[in-house]
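re: ur question from yesterday

yeah so i grabbed the chain u mentioned. its 120 aa long if i counted rite. heres the sequnce exactly as i have it in my notes:
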Amino acid sequence: MERTMHDHTDALMAARGGLPQDELLCDLADLFKIFGDTTRMKILFALFEAELCVHEITALLGMTQSAVSHQLKVLRDARLIDSRREGKTMIYFLADDHVRSIVGQGFEHITEEDAHENNV
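ran it thru and got these structure tokens back, copy pasting raw so excuse formatting
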């Protein structure tokens, strides 16, 4: 029985050519870490529905203002949310449609798998 070697050169070259620089991959991994917290996800989902101030978010989540403010800072530093001042109140909102797309596609992915498992 003759054994042939498969040439992986083209596949490796294509994969290497498609890899972003390590710094960009690190930044991307850091971005996805931000989504790895349930409280931050709740805040993002709340902001899908309406622009909210910190007091409204604390009431919604049943958390202290300090805890919510910390998570808002993390989300803002990651440029996932933004804010504007109305008098003495800061109003928070999604930074752009990319945030809605990222979270929406992730949610669709996990619920799609649940639906698939229920049909099996």
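noticed a couple things. The helical segments are 9-18, 22-34, 38-49, 54-61, 65-77, 97-119. also The chain has a mean pLDDT of 90.
anyway ttyl
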